[in-house]
Each structure stands twice: as structure tokens, then as C-alpha cells.
From TrEMBL:
Bias type Gly residues, positions: 424-439
Biased composition (Acidic residues): 215-224
Protein name stated in the entry: tRNA pseudouridine synthase
InterPro entries: PsdUridine_synth_cat_dom_sf, PsdUridine_synth_TruA, PsdUridine_synth_TruA_C, TruA/RsuA/RluB/E/F_N
UniProt-recorded Gene Ontology molecular function terms: pseudouridine synthase activity; RNA binding
Region (Disordered): 23-57, 199-231, 404-443
GO biological process: tRNA pseudouridine synthesis
Basic and acidic residues bias (residue ranges): 44-57
Compositional bias (Low complexity): 33-42, 203-214
Keywords: Isomerase
């Protein structure tokens, strides 16, 4: 009995100590955490939990709901120090007008996005090109025809087509694809959206059946699809791009198992692509051919709906080619409507004009530099390499055809809505020009800010965050080197919320032969 009482007492003491330690951690002041240069910091540059100010509490003692996005938001009182000793204070060196995150996001959301969405839809269908935004000064969207460069610097064209020894003949294909972002849940496969779609039952002898037997299996799968309902059907905005490709190519793998799809870039939900490149291989030499791959993608419902388009011919490439690792640069184009639709009384930032010249000057400062860009990324795993070499960073004003019908902003809570560019009958509505009731007064064109970025790699949400931060700092009159200083500081809370995905287009990828962006080989 005495021993049991002693044990209970010890447990109670440990519990008390644990509770005391937890309370101490909660009330601990914010402290800086050093991080290796070029690696993502854990949870930004700070850890711990700041004490709640008494002014944030109402009469009942509860924390006011608007303090996290209002004047008391922690990001508005940041004091940063870069590794070289440079000091940056919020409201003085960056975010000069103290834009809280939520109003800042609404500043980008409440704009004439329908015209941009319509332009992106036309780019996907091949009816327009990003080069029309700056005729004669901007390259068209496209995948460079180079063979690629391995990470060790070996050029793929110097290697034989077959590099896998005696493991059997492997067919490796390279596909160029354009797709409309809102028609998918993003590039990457996700279990909540794609598991039922890609894991449909296959017959037990599918791995050893002939091509004709697999055709019968596919018919059985279709019957299962009909019985199970929409969980195994392709529907607008409910499947990822990679899962849709896997489902389209599934019959071609024949006796071979299904293979992973490797892409040049993993676009987020809502982001468009005018020149995505992916590679996939198989040992099913009889059925897995470039012609069959193209035909399978064209036969998929996404093609009929205008949600994707195969650009050019599908090409068989060397076994050593990998769409992700052989790429030497990626290119993104962001299009931001300059006309605001926001209510000035609801959001006081609505009347602040976008400044193309100042935005361009700030972005130009990044060109030709290799730096840690984790401050402009989101959800980067701690310790992951976050160094990027920026080859092109510029901004300019352009125009796109105004939309038909009433304009409306995407709305902060409506970024997941069906896009205005997608019609109810399952096709992309891409009618241009006209300037309907909500179009710009007395004009058939919509003014936009265009941001072009080329780098060897991009982190998650880096482009949209960089665009939003550059526009915010330019609109509030910050110094021209503010983006460089924020990058060196490495604090994600100091940068703006990501701009809406509707304006972002994956516009190209290089594989070692661009006359300017590939000079000197892989950077």
C-alpha cells in the first residue's frame, strides 16, 4: 500500500511539473532561432508563443476575434535582423502602410478576374498566347526542345536511348500538356480526391493478360464505375491532373504495373499551365507507344471538356530523361487585373493603385542572384534546400480582352468556386471582347499587371507570394531593394498572403538549350 501511494504521489508530481513547463513555454517571449543559410526555417524565423496584450481582450476577458487580422496582428510589429546585421522594422522598412493579412488578401481578390480567367482558358485551348501580352518582347509559352541535363551536368543527348542494361526494353515518353487550373484540384495526387478514381478494381489476372484481355478488363472497370457512381468518374474541379493522366494511360500499361508521372512543375489548385512537361515510362512495349499515349490523353473526358490539351506530338526519349530532374529552369507568368471591384467602405485598401513601374524595379533587383527564398514560400519542410537562382524577374502593364457579362472578384472564401471561364455545359467559356455590364467603362480591353519570373526552381506558392509582396511594397512606397532584404531576413510573416491562383500560368520549362537562360549550363 505504501509503495502504491508513493507511486501515485510521484505521478502527480510529474504531472504538476509537466503542466508548469507547458505554461512556461506558452508564456515564453518570442526568441530568434538560427538556421543554416539556404534551408527552410522551422515555422518561420521565430518560435514560442507571444503573450496576448491586455488591449486584445474585451470586457469579458475573451480575446477579440478581429485582433488576428486587424491592427494588432503580430506581422505588423515585426522587427527583423538579417544574417549580415541589416535591421528591418514593419511599418518603416516594409509594409509601410501596415496592411493586415486579411484586407491585403481582399485587395487582390476583389478585382476584375473574369477577363484574366477567360484569357487563360483561351491560352489552354491554343486560341491565345502569353506572348500577346508584350508582342515582340515576350517569348511564347512552350517547352524548350532540349534533351535535358542530369544533375551531375551530363547532357542527355550524349547518352544512348537505352541506359538500363538488361532489365528489358523500356519506353520513356515525354508529353507537353496545357490545362485549365480550376478544372482540377492541382497537379499532385491526393487521397481525398483521387484514391477511388485511380484505385478502381482490376481483375486478378490483369498482370498476366494479353492486350485483348485487358480490353475486357477495362469494360468490366467501366461497369464497376457505373455501379459505384461519381466516385470513379472524372468531374470538373474534383480530380488532380496527375490522377487524370494515370487514369487515361491505365489501359496502356497492359501486363506492366502503373508508373509514376514525373512533371516539370507541381502546380497548386487553380493554377493554369500553358506548357507543362511530364515523363512516364513502361515496359509494356506493345501497347505503351507515343501514338497510343497521345490518343489516350485525347480520349479522356478532360480533353472533350477543353480542360486540357496535348501540345504537339508525344515523343519517345532516352531512358535517362526525367521531366523534373533534367529541367534547367521554369517560367511562370502572373496576370493581375489592375481594376479593383472592392468596396472602399468595406476595405480601405481598394482605392490604392497598382504601381507597375515600382513593382518592376523591385523585381529587377532579384535578377541574376542565388538566394534563400523561404520567406516567400509556404509549407516548406524544415531543413529543405530553399535556394533559388532567379534568371528573369520583371513586371509591366498590358491589356487582355474584357469579359462579357458582369465582373466579380474571386472573393476570399470563393477561391474554391467554379471558375467564371467554365460553362455549365462542361466546356470552357472563352468568349472574348465586348466589355459587358461589368466591364471597364467604354473599353473592350482590361488593363493588367504582368509579372514574368524565370528561375532554376520555385518553392511552393513562391510565385504568388512574391507577386503579392512586390505589389504591396510598390503600392506603399518601400525601397527598391525591399524584396532582397526580406529574402535575407527569411521571415514568412513579413511577406504578403499569396495572390489568387487564377492569375498564374506555368508558361515553360527548359532542358539545356535556351540561348539566354541556359548560358553556362545548369546554374
Amino acid at each position: 500500500m505504501a509503495q502504491a501511494q508513493a507511486l501515485a504521489c510521484a505521478r502527480g508530481l510529474r504531472h504538476a511539473r509537466s503542466f508548469t513547463a507547458a505554461r512556461a513555454r506558452r508564456d515564453a517571449p518570442v526568441r530568434p532561432v538560427p538556421a543554416a543559410a539556404g534551408t527552410a526555417r522551422p515555422y518561420g524565423a521565430h518560435e514560442g508563443r507571444a503573450r496576448r496584450m491586455e488591449s486584445e481582450r474585451d470586457a469579458t476577458g475573451a480575446v477579440a476575434k478581429n485582433t488576428l487580422h486587424g491592427a494588432n496582428h503580430p506581422s505588423l510589429s515585426l522587427r527583423l535582423v538579417t544574417p549580415d546585421g541589416d535591421r528591418l522594422d514593419a511599418g518603416v522598412d516594409f509594409n509601410l502602410h501596415a496592411w493586415p493579412p486579411v484586407p491585403c488578401a481582399k485587395y487582390f481578390d476583389d478585382r476584375a478576374w473574369r477577363a484574366v480567367e477567360s484569357f487563360a482558358a483561351r491560352v489552354v485551348l491554343g486560341e491565345a498566347c502569353v506572348s500577346s501580352l508584350a508582342p515582340g518582347e515576350m517569348e511564347p509559352a512552350g517547352v524548350c526542345p532540349g534533351r535535358g541535363v542530369n544533375q551531375d551536368g551530363t547532357r542527355i543527348e550524349t547518352l544512348p536511348m537505352r541506359t538500363k542494361g538488361s532489365r528489358g526494353r523500356r519506353t520513356n515518353v515525354r508529353v507537353h500538356l496545357a490545362y485549365y487550373g480550376p478544372a482540377f484540384t492541382g497537379w499532385a495526387w491526393t487521397p481525398e480526391n483521387d484514391k477511388d478514381y485511380t484505385d478502381c478494381p482490376r481483375s486478378a489476372d490483369a498482370t498476366s493478360a494479353s492486350a485483348s484481355a485487358n480490353a475486357e478488363d477495362d469494360a468490366e472497370d467501366d461497369a464497376v464505375d457505373a455501379a459505384r457512381g461519381s466516385s470513379t468518374e472524372w468531374r470538373y474541379g474534383e480530380r488532380s491532373v496527375s490522377a487524370s493522366i494515370q487514369r487515361a494511360l491505365r489501359p496502356l500499361f497492359s501486363s506492366d504495373k502503373e508508373r509514376l508521372i514525373h512533371s516539370a512543375g507541381r502546380t497548386d489548385k487553380g493554377v493554369h499551365a500553358a506548357a507543362q512537361c511530364f515523363s512516364v515510362w513502361s515496359n509494356a512495349k506493345d501497347t505503351f507507344t507515343p501514338r497510343n499515349v497521345r490518343d489516350a490523353l485525347v480520349a479522356h473526358p478532360a480533353h472533350a471538356a477543353g480542360a486540357w490539351r496535348v501540345v504537339g506530338d508525344v515523343e519517345e526519349v532516352s531512358d535517362a530523361f526525367h521531366a523534373t530532374f533534367c529541367a534547367t529552369w521554369r517560367r511562370y507568368v502572373y496576370i493581375l487585373p489592375m481594376r479593383s471591384l472592392g468596396d472602399e467602405e468595406e476595405n480601405g485598401l481598394s482605392n490604392v493603385a497598382v504601381d507597375p513601374a515600382a513593382t518592376n524595379a523591385m523585381l529587377n533587383a532579384l535578377e541574376g542572384k542565388s538566394m534563400d527564398m523561404s520567406a516567400f514560400a509556404r509549407a516548406t519542410p524544415p531543413g529543405k534546400d530553399s535556394t533559388c537562382f532567379v534568371k528573369v524577374a520583371r513586371a509591366f502593364e498590358a491589356t487582355v480582352p474584357a469579359s462579357k457579362g458582369a465582373e466579380r472578384g474571386v472573393g476570399r472564401g470563393a477561391r474554391r468556386r467554379k471558375s467564371a471561364g467554365f460553362s455549365e455545359d462542361g466546356g470552357l467559356g472563352v468568349g472574348g471582347g465586348g466589355g459587358g455590364d461589368g466591364g471597364p467603362p467604354n473599353s473592350t480591353m482590361e488593363r493588367v499587371l504582368v509579372v514574368e519570373l524565370v528561375a532554376d526552381r520555385f518553392l511552393r506558392k513562391m510565385v504568388r507570394t512574391l507577386v503579392a509582396t512586390a505589389v504591396r511594397e510598390a503600392a506603399t512606397g518601400a525601397r527598391g531593394d525591399v524584396l532582397l532584404r526580406l529574402a535575407r531576413a527569411g521571415e514568412r510573416a513579413a511577406t504578403a498572403p499569396p495572390a489568387p491562383p487564377e492569375g498564374l500560368i506555368f508558361a515553360g520549362v527548359g532542358y539545356g538549350n535556351h540561348p539566354v537562360w541556359d548560358v553556362g549550363g545548369r546554374d
